[in-house]
């Protein structure tokens, strides 16, 4: 019975090509927002080649992270996708928090750099607690963000920094926090896209039932 249900068209998640396309669109949107905010803050026009590279990097990162998260879930959780708060409202909220973390790293005045670094780390880990809460998600976001921070440091070293901050301790931590938050965000979107409709419906009914009991 379960095999018959799994084989029906209504229980098949979108194919890989569609998922990748949607993830690339989200990556493009995030890159456009962050680049626009950075341009408004600095008042300087960005080099088109650099902006294009940044956009491509965000699109590739979104597609890669969003594809790996559900695959890792299936390995960690016996073939199931982690579904804690995996819905579109939570995904959009994560994008907004990601943009907020970027703004906090560039515009909010703090008394010293350590206070700012602590705030950014708290916000990034808070996003994980609010949107994910899985060991798999925590580890993957940590790995992706460290890799992204290394790439960002290399970009600063060769002079291709655009959305990033200065090449100092704060700049590196800021890049890590943005990369960590982006990993959580794109991972959540990838999970939603890879989740079979039956699992989404079951989770929605469970959430609705919990709200009724609370009321």
Topology:
Elements: H1 2-7, H2 16-42, H3 48-76, H4 88-106, H5 113-131, H6 135-158, H7 169-194, H8 197-214
Summarize the structure.
The protein has 215 residues and is mainly alpha-helical.
Explain this structure to me?
By secondary structure, the chain is mainly alpha-helical. It has one domain (17-207). Helix content is 78%, strand content 0%. The protein contains eight helices and no strands. It has helices at 2-7, 16-42, 48-76, 88-106, 113-131, 135-158, 169-194, 197-214. It is globular. The relative contact order is 0.17.
Structural class: mainly alpha
Strand tally: 0
| Biggest beta-sheet profile | none
Helix content: over 70%
User: Approximately how much beta-strand content do the residues carry?
Assistant: under 5%
Determine the N-to-C terminus distance.
Answer: 36 Å
Residue windows where pLDDT falls under 50 for at least 5 positions: 1-11, 162-167, 204-215
Radius of gyration: 19 Å
User: What is the total number of structural domains?
Assistant: 1
- Which shape, going by the Cα principal axes? globular
- Reading the helices and strands in chain order gives HHHHHHHH
* Total of helices: 8
Roughly what is the average pLDDT, rounded to an integer? 77
Short descriptors:
215 residues, mainly alpha, 8 helices, 78% helix, globular, disordered N terminus, disordered C terminus
């Amino acid at each position: 019975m379960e095999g018959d249900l799994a084989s029906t068209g209504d229980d098949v998640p979108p194919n890989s090509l569609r998922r990748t396309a949607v993830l690339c669109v989200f990556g493009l949107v995030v890159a456009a927002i962050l680049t626009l905010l950075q341009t408004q803050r600095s008042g300087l026009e960005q080099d088109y080649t650099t902006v294009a590279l940044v956009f491509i990097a965000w699109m590739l990162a979104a597609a890669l992270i969003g594809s790996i998260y559900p695959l890792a879930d299936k390995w960690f959780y016996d073939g199931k996708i982690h579904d804690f708060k995996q819905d579109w409202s939570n995904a959009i909220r994560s994008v907004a928090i990601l943009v907020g973390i970027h703004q906090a790293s560039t515009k909010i005045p703090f008394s010293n750099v350590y206070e700012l670094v602590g705030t950014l780390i708290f916000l990034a880990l808070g996003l994980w607690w609010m949107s994910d809460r899985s060991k798999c998600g925590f580890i993957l976001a940590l790995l992706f963000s460290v890799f992204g921070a290394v790439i960002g440091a290399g970009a600063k070293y060769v002079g291709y920094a655009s959305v990033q901050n200065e090449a100092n301790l704060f700049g590196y931590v800021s890049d890590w926090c943005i990369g960590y938050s982006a990993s959580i965000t794109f991972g959540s979107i990838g999970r939603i896209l890879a989740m079979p409709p039956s699992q989404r419906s079951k989770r929605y009914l469970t959430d609705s039932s919990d709200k009724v009991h609370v009321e």
